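Continuing the series of single-chain predictions for the mutant panel. This is the parent chain; the variants come on the following pages.
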Amino acid sequence: MQGISAEALLSLRADMLRFAQLQLRNTETAEDLVQESIEAALRKSSSFAGQSTLKTWVFAILRNRIIDHLRQASRTVTLSSLVDDGEDWEERLDALFNERGAWRDGPRPVAWPNPEESMQTRQFWAVFETCLDHLPPATGKVFMMREFLGFESDEICAQLGITTSNCHVILHRARLKLRGCMDTGWGRPEGSTC
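Parent structure:
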């Protein structure tokens, strides 16, 4: 497949920006991540195999960048978040630590996440992605458009040429199949109840 044109990617920019702003609630950061995603898509355009739509492929790049950004942001504390406007930051910084340089009790950083919980979360998403792969292609497409890309039902219907009631039935069936798959993927016998 030939490379992707910059025009094709730029035509998705408004939707990408809306998606990023909903996730981040920060216009500048959203714009930065959208720009980085477009640049990454251009650099990797030869790897686009056409197995999914261009929009899905580019949104996956953006989604991964947003996830990386949120993970990084949760691990860092900016000095400006610890100091009020107009306050002398050196005095405020000194107030965080005692005379031996150890954290005072109040401003101590939050605890690291539990490794077992982190592993379960990674396992959950691995099982979930496998279950998504087992959905029928049309069902998976509707589900992804609604739940991951944030399309409204009427947008999905217009793009795929289906009725609103059909869209809702497809989403309902997708959720049921995903739930059944997730139940068996987590070691529960098929047909067991929660």
